[in-house]
């Protein structure tokens, strides 16, 4: 099992913030990051990446990511990615 087995879903956006819920269905703890790409309401886009976090077996964590502008939509992700 690895970080790629984690389940990430968008909770919502508010202004320049995106909230992502990440769940670990595995029977062991896992360290990962989460990434998503946003489109700005005024044009342009940005890829947001969280810092490392660890989820215990069966655990769920909400991760908040901040963009440099107002988020209009999510164009890719959220996706669990390899930790640094």
Characterise this structure.
- The chain has 84 residues and is mostly beta strands.
- Helix content is 0%, strand content 62%.
- The protein has no helices and 7 strands.
- It has strands at residues 7-14, 17-23, 30-40, 45-49, 53-55, 60-66, 71-81.
- Strands 3, 4, 5 and 7 form a 4-stranded antiparallel beta sheet that branches. A 3-stranded antiparallel beta sheet has the order 1-2-6, with no helix packed on it.
- It starts with 6 loop residues before the first strand and ends with a strand.
- The model has no long low-confidence stretch (mean pLDDT 95).
Report the end-to-end length measured between terminal Cα atoms: 17 Å
Give the oligomer, counting copies of the same chain as homo and different chains as hetero.
single chain
Order of helices and strands: EEEEEEE
Please count the helical segments: 0
Walk me through the topology.
Blueprint lengths: L6 E8 L2 E7 L6 E11 L4 E5 L3 E3 L4 E7 L4 E11 L3
